[in-house]
Amino acid sequence: MNTISNKTVSLNKATVKKEWFVIDAENEVLGRLSSKVAFVLRGKHKTGFTPHVDCGDHVIVINAEKVKLTGKKMEDKEYIRHSGYPGGQKITKVADMLDHKPTMVIEKAVRGMLPKNKLGNHIIGNLHVYAGSEHQHAGQNPQPLALSSIK
Fold this sequence. Notes:
Layout: E1 20-24, H1 30-42, E2 58-62, H2 73-76, E3 78-82, E4 89-93, H3 94-100, H4 102-111, H5 118-123, E5 127-129, E6 143-144
Parallel strand pairs: 1-2, 1-6, 2-5
Antiparallel strand pairs: 3-4
């Protein structure tokens, strides 16, 4: 009888090895960038991916103000929020959002691609978005990550 067998490995909080990556968003399409960032944040690029554990890596996105949108989305795409009071609906165009808070555009796009539960709320904390080319995480020694290398 063969006593050697392959066992399924499930990661947990203690066995996860988190890394830091930096991605340059300059001239990248927003949706394609966001889906690949969400893929890395979730940890699906690792062989030991476990769906109910935060096994993803930290991702730093720089040059958020230089992200591109295809078609007429720059004029047509809107972000809608509501205060909860009558007449409290506010609409913001993407072009205005890129002028005032360029980091929010990427954060909202990535958040929409993560699970809508407590795990998704925890995972979004591993995303760090900056408008310029400078970031404050040099101490973590982040490795540059090419988007073409992600599935």
